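Chain X:
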Amino acid sequence: MGSTRYITSMGELTRKDNSLCFRKNGKNVYIPVENTKEIYCLNEVSINSKLLDFLAANNIIVHFFNYHEGYSGSFYPRNQYNSGKLLVKQVETFNSKRLCVAKSIVNGIGSNIAEVLYHYYKHNKKEVKNTIDWINKEFVQRINESKDIHQVMAVEGELWQRFYGEFKNILPEDFIINKRVKRPPDNPINALISFGNTLLYAKTISSIYRTHLDQRVSFLHEPSEGRFSLSLDISEVFKPVIVYKTIFDLVNNRKLQVAKHFDKKVNYCLLNEDGRKIFIKAFEERLESVFVHPRLKRKVSYRTAIKLDCYKLIKFIMENKEFVPFSLKERM
């Protein structure tokens, strides 16, 4: 899994000499500190302050998730990348150019959704063409003509609804979505979307942490006291590329099946431990898959592309260079 370690079982995470030790069912599993940049705790994990000191010294971020596979919070070391100058400029940009950044983000989401749908159009799913045409014409026009954030978010909401409406043409019948339900998800496809979006959100938190950007000052989403809203902004354009492509591949290739990989309760539905492991493996493989970046003239992973979007935003804030989020079509 590269630099990310996932803990899917209940247990205790401690420091053992100069490495990490996860103890479950009376057995120790050692986690090397070298190359570990983040840990995802997807179950109940006990920790202590001695461990936190060790994690901080080794610059390792830990993300915690609740019973419903939702994001609870993160521990990360004292921020090494604080920049008062950038923070002041980031707030100034929010006040003066928020709408401009928000439009760029939503245009990026639309572009990437259209590209994902076009893949299926090429593979004889001709029904998706109506949504592709709507994105390329009406959607782009309405975003460009939007006068405020509320109008932008209304068009974005319609974009996602149209995308979900195409699932019936892409996925087998037992995975078709009736409506998007988040907390908690009520069927297998909602469970996959929620879990994937949560993993991507945490990945983006880690990427932003390693830049000078401030997590709290966002542009599309309202800055909020209860969450890192800039991570929501940056992650949006990557959802079609990373989360939904992972879901479609796993479901259509029957690597995830309703009967085998989900726990269905009275009012909700979650991936079971086997299902989570399958999803995490595919999610990480997609993050680490590479493409040739046309401007950098070298191979870049999708994980790096998230960080590059952070740097693009910094360039916009500090130097007023146009902010164009990652495009699946352009590969940059």
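Chain Y:
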Amino acid sequence: MSDKIRAFILIIGNEVLSGRTHDANLAFLANALNEIGIQVGEARVIPDDEKIIIDTVNYARAAFDYVFTTGGIGPTHDDITAACIAKAFNRPLIRNEEAVAILKTHYPSTDLNEARLRMANTPSEAILIENPISKAPGFQVENVFVLAGVPRIAQAMFENLKPRLKGAAPVISKTISTNLGEGLIAGPLGEIQNKFPDVEIGSYPYFGDGKTGVSLVARALCEDDVDLCLEEIKVMIESLGGKTIFSV
């Protein structure tokens, strides 16, 4: 597929890698970005490690149009994302006065301690991302958008930064499923893929309720290409004696 605008999603946090926290941000961001014509080309989950964060951010911001990070911008000692982003861009980490003013609207002066003020630290010249839930803002540096790890806060931040993003045509995705196994359809499916180079075909086996089969997902920028591809897949399934279970 051509004319792609591509994004990289970076999930930061030891708690995700340990399994203590279930990540919900990747699915949300991938779906929300695709709706505005931005395709997620890669995603990684990494620990709260300064060198790994810096190296990954520098790789991603050079290789992708947009980078979205989640996690590591809270008030505790292990929230190091802001400092790492500053180092990745070779900018000083500052106490952002605009962010401080926002925190002052949320916390009584007696509760706005140094730990909470750490949430106002950003790289210099960063553009804030509004957080309507807990007020502590995210921020943007060039093509990197830094969001909270808490899913409902990350989602609210994304809604506020979305007008800054420029997308292309959204990807069209349609599915057809069959009771045939992957081994039987693998060869013919490969031939169909070669015939439709602008369509990405994914094969996903399913098991449950005594039923087995494969869901075949066709994705492309052009809906006509997707429809033509799925029609050939349907003909292939029927020629092998299979049934089309459902199509979307």
